[in-house]
Design a protein that fits this description.
The chain has 338 residues and is of the alpha/beta class. The chain is built from twelve helices and 13 strands. It has helices spanning 16-27, 63-70, 86-91, 93-97, 99-112, 155-175, 197-206, 227-240, 257-268, 293-299, 307-321, 324-336; strands at residues 7-11, 31-36, 54-57, 75-78, 117-123, 178-184, 187-188, 212-215, 221-222, 225-226, 243-249, 255-256, 275-278. The protein is globular. The structure holds nicotinamide-adenine-dinucleotide. The site of nicotinamide-adenine-dinucleotide has 27 residues, from α1, β2 and β5.
Length: 338
């Protein structure tokens, strides 16, 4: 992959996924600019590369700031979004709806400033929810803009991401800009916050919460995908796909929340006396995993991290960076506010 000497903008680059991507682009000798309002991102996430990047702090819904961010840029990775874990997107639907404005302002600004390639961080939440009650791996064409009833996205957040894809397709069709949309599935890894399932489960175990709380019956599954596999898919899509075709970035295994919790207890060497399954909490769809055929065909992408390896790295990072007493005292806030 060659990003050498390209000027690259990462919107939302101070985020969990964004900061990993920024580090990789810097390592690939790109000239990287980050534009982020730090609403959920943190400058600490960029500490390893802070001196090697340009950082712009501002709200990309402000068109003049977006124009400053996209000025003199070759490639754009658009990751900025109002977003959090399941509890966040269920409780803040209006915040998530504002992503429709954000995406369009960024795309229009980029196109008018002559950006050549745009990659959009889309989501598995674009897929119809009703087909995720049973185990069936999600294929990109299970969402359709061309058939009546072809879309039934997951909450306002999912609809906004789907509209982001639709807009990007329109910008490609009308202006010819190279475009790609990567449907990210349940990422996890260092720097993720506690509103997301795996880090929430790690935080509760680290704080030795007992009875240990699991949202739902714990038999709901996700295809937890390590962040480095996600960023690789984003980079490959930016290089390879030009016509806004969406592509999945997610593993194809179904992993239950109960199994993840057991793996976390084993890694931390602690387990609770009892588990309280909280069936009143929002849990989202029943089963979710990706079909990776298109990612293999178009990008040559395959995930490299096993859950064991990714979990070990995430737990190491978490216990190194978070004080146990702080997590104990602030657990409820950490789990709900991004
Ligand atoms: N984490 C996942 O499992 C997952 C799954 C699917 C899609 N995604 C998408 O990937 C991207 C990154 O997500 P993440 O989980 O790493 O963290 P995140 O959702 O916290 O990242 C969003 C970033 O955008 C910034 N931001 C938000 N609104 C902004 C605005 N108006 N102007 C400028 N910056 C703004 C935030 O400060 C943050 O750094 C998001 O677009 C998210 O929707 C993530």
């Amino acid at each position: 992959m060659s990003f050498q000497n390209d000027t690259v903008l990462v919107t939302g680059g101070a985020s969990f996924i964004g900061s990993h991507l920024v580090e990789e682009l810097v390592a690939a000798d790109a000239d990287v600019r980050v534009a982020d309002d730090l609403s959920s991102g943190e400058t600490d996430n960029l500490s390893a590369v802070r001196d090697e990047i340009e950082f712009l702090n501002g709200n990309l819904k402000d068109r003049s700031f977006a124009d400053r961010a996209t000025d003199d840029i070759d490639r754009l990775f658009h990751l900025a979004a109002d977003h959090g874990g399941r509890g966040y997107i269920s409780n803040y639907p209006a915040n998530c709806a504002t992503n429709m404005a954000l995406d369009n302002i960024v795309f229009e600004s980029a196109v008018q400033n002559g950006v050549e390639k745009i990659t959009f961080a889309s989501s598995a939440c674009t897929y119809p929810t009703d087909i995720q009650q049973e185990r069936q791996r999600l294929q990109e064409d299970m969402v359709s803009f061309d058939e009546r009833g072809g879309a039934y996205a997951d909450e306002t957040y999912g609809w906004a991401k789907l509209m982001g894809e639709r807009s990007l397709q329109a910008f490609h069709d009308q202006y010819g800009v190279d475009a790609s949309a990567v449907r990210i599935f349940t990422a996890y890894g260092p720097r993720e916050n506690e509103t997301h399932a795996i880090v929430a489960l790690i935080a509760k175990a680290y704080a030795e919460q007992d009875p240990y709380q699991i949202w739902g019956d714990g038999e709901q599954t996700r295809n937890f995908t390590y962040v480095k596999d996600i960023t690789k898919a984003l980079r490959l899509a930016n290089e390879t796909i030009t016509d806004a075709t969406p592509v999945n970035a997610g593993i194809s295994e179904y992993i239950s929340i109960n199994d993840v919790a057991d793996a976390i207890f084993a890694e931390l060497g602690w387990e609770p006396d009892s588990i309280n399954h909280m069936t009143d909490k929002p849990v989202g769809v029943r089963h979710r995993a990706a079909d990776t055929t298109r990612a293999k065909e178009l990008l040559g992408w395959e995930p490299e991290y096993t859950l064991e390896k990714g979990l070990a790295e995430t737990i190491d990072w978490y216990t190194d960076h978070r004080d146990k007493d702080y997590v104990r005292e602030n657990l409820e806030t950490l789990l709900h506010e991004r």
